[in-house]
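Hi everyone,

Forwarding the result from last night's run.
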Amino acid sequence: MQYEDRTPDDRVNIPGRHPFREFLRLSIMAVVVVIVLGFLLSILGGKLGGLIPFKSELWLTERIHAASEKAGQESLFEVRSVNPELENYLQSVADKVSVALGLEESMPITLHYSDENVVNAFATIGGHVYFFKGLLSLLPHENALAMLMAHEYSHVTLRHPAKGLGGGLALTIGTSVIGLSSENRLFSLGTRLTSTGFSRSMESEADQSALAAVFEMYGHVDGAAALFNLFMQQRQGDAGGQFEKFVLTHPLDQERIDQINQLAKENGWLTVGDLTPLPDDYIDWLQR
């Protein structure tokens, strides 16, 4: 037997694919894995959060409020009266919304009014719902106000704040276990895409519940879409492109208007009816 040295093949250890293509392929796979992981964690955490009794939310908000007061900090859950006349009217509409939604006594909702000139409203844990002067000043009639209130109250009845909190905690805990940091850009992108999609489904669900409540209150749903027309006007009529649609936490305004029309058609709800005006002193209340 005879041995001899052989020159190695020049193609040894050289992949058949271009290095840049291989890098791109692995990067795409990593993004897909993170998005799928984030989606599954959000869904799991959201479902678990929805199983938490509402009284546990109340207990948590009480502890947070007490801790904030002890630290001399402003509490999100503190009830302040800054405009009694306006707040009394808002509460009267909110009481009608609560009846239309079939709100149970075991799920009390606390209405907060903020005189900040911000075009926003939101619901958080423990049934605390905030309405801002900036948004209230733009509403054209009570029907739009009722739609807004019913939407935010529906978030509470559907346990969306608890589900959102559960999904966020699941993402944080799950990704920390596998060694991903929230400062990781890939992780941030993946969780943003999955969490916004989860939020959009909640918004659509709340819209459906709110529209049913508006019909219960007025016998028609005329004026409900005015709320989203208002948002469109605030965005100067630009509803956004397809990429914006993908990353927004809320459905596009035109989609929400289309959903209102579709739900009205499916349920046989009247889309034309008398609109209830806001009180004569409404604007004065807002300006005080």
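The first strand starts at residue 110 and ends at 114.

Cheers,
N.
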